[in-house]
Amino acid sequence: MLSVERLSKSFGGVKAVDGCSFSVRDGAITALIGPNGAGKTTVFQCVSGLLEPDAGRMRLGDHDLTPLPPWDRARLGLSRTFQQVRLWSYLTVEEHLLLALHDRDDRVTAVLHSDTDAQRAAVRAALERVGLPRDLLGKLGSDLSYGQSKLLELARSLLFPHKMLLLDEPVAGVHPVLREQIAEILRGLRTDGETILVIEHDMDFVRSVADHMIVMAEGRVLLEGTPNDVLRHPEVMEAYLGVEVNS
Amino acid sequence: MNTAYLTHLGITFAIQLILVGSFSFLFGGIGIPNLAHVSTVAVGAYTSALLSLHFGWSFPVTLGIAVVSGVVSGLLLAALLRRVRSDYLAFLALEVQFLTTVVLLNWPSVTRGAFGLPGIPRPYGFTTPSAYLVLAASIAIGVIVVYAAILRSPYGRVMAAVRDDETAAVSLGKRVPSVRMAAFLFASAGAAVGGALLAHYIQFIDPLTFSIHLLALALAGAIVGGVGSVPGMIAGTAIIVFVPELLRRTAAGSPDVAGALRQLAFALLILLVLLFRPRGLFGRIDVR
């Protein structure tokens, strides 16, 4: 589904991503893990078009994403969440989700459009899917709790027409109960055939949802494999703990 | 109060409503406080005035061309501001505003410089103040209805998303640059209409007609009323038009005192709103 080839990105003299290459399989959950500063979020930013890489190519299916602006990449089927939750402070929960549903609302002709009952029903269904109550529909984005914000951002990304989800630390800072709720949602999405690439530091969460793992360190892919193989690998332990481990 | 005075107040309110409304639309709708707003007002005013003075064209034609020229100047400004980081945006816009005044003053072959353009004709059929009130009020209502429709539509929602967090908007496939340009287009059209109406009402314009003072009025009206809100546009305009009239009456007939009181009152009003009610009277968003 997604392939990244020799991606590189530097900030000043610091190589955040250094010739990184990997592929994400269809219909599976792939976890992208690595210590802080490994380049994981930079990879996400480059793939989604929010950062321009110094080198490399990115493909989504048959489409070369590399020359495309970020909005066109999203329209090709990339839907994402962010490491720091990005909601609109002065829009309601309902408006957040309607924005994900409307396809041509960024054209001036959308001045003449209105929301349909079917769209409102889809919004309510999206809330239910992530376990948010309907009475939140009228609340502003800025008035939600952290956990509710995480779920709303997830619901928004699910509602947006997509071929693949990029989830950046979906359970960072959340209560264990909510963490399990989100894990359950992801497992349900996999059953539905969704393709997901998720960045996470929570290894218990990753172990419970991921089919495949890609480990990054110092801007490069260190190794790939199943969670069991990867998490016991001495190089992974060395990358995380910074000590040499005798295998 | 006599009828002529009330008619004048009504016309002033209608014109200011368009100027405040177009400023508030861009500020509240997309989050850009366009400090070069009055330069677009000036483009509209001078275009309509020059075409009617030199060619004798009718008001509907000169107004249409004024709108086009205002939109072009607004889009050029938008293209310029795109290249600037948000914290420098206000400075650049203000510089454009000052530059516009310099051009108007120093292009006498077209604008007559400091001598201004006298004798700008009233539109045919609307030469009396009461008829002009009908014209100005109708156009003002039309402009505000259009802004209200845009802000309440799915398109207005995209504008708000761009305003609050354009990265999140981009992640949903929204073409942020074109949304921003279109917002400038709508705001500039309104500003140019207001400029043309102003020119044909007062029948004399010079570069100082489009000074920082006119910008301060639009800014005060938008902030006090509440940016991006149609009730806010109306309430804010009422305050900037009627409060000076009340102050004039309390200044015991002294124009100097009245002028000073007005400036003090506006400055205090904006300060109080920003400190204690940053959303303004009817606004939805916090301007701080």
Structural overview:
The complex is a heterodimer of chains A (247) and B (288). The longest helix of chain A has 16 residues, at 176-191. In chain A, strand 1 (2-11) and strand 2 (14-24) form a beta hairpin. Chain A has helices at 40-48, 70-75, 93-101, 117-129, 146-159, 176-191, 203-209, 227-231, 234-241, and strands spanning 2-11, 14-24, 29-33, 55-60, 63-64, 78-80, 164-168, 196-199, 212-217, 220-225. Chain A has 247 residues and is an alpha/beta fold. In chain A, 35% of the residues lie in helices and 23% in strands. Chain A contains 9 helices and 10 strands. Chain B is mostly helical. Chain B has one domain. In chain B, helix 1 (3-30) runs parallel beside helix 6. The longest helix of chain B has 28 residues, at 3-30. The relative contact order of chain B is 0.19.
Short recap of the structure:
The complex is a heterodimer of chains A (247) and B (288). Chain A is an alpha/beta fold and 247 residues long.
Can you lay out the helices and strands and say which pair or pack?
The complex is a heterodimer of chains A (247) and B (288).
Chain A: E1 2-11, E2 14-24, E3 29-33, H1 40-48, E4 55-60, E5 63-64, H2 70-75, E6 78-80, H3 93-101, H4 117-129, H5 146-159, E7 164-168, H6 176-191, E8 196-199, H7 203-209, E9 212-217, E10 220-225, H8 227-231, H9 234-241
Parallel strand pairs in A: 3-8, 3-9, 6-7, 7-8
Antiparallel strand pairs in A: 1-2, 1-4, 4-5, 9-10
Helix pairs in contact in A: 3-4, 3-5, 4-5
Chain B: H1 3-30, H2 37-55, H3 59-81, H4 86-105, H5 108-111, E1 117-118, H6 129-152, H7 154-164, H8 166-171, H9 176-202, E2 204-205, H10 212-225, H11 230-250, H12 255-276
Antiparallel strand pairs in B: 1-2
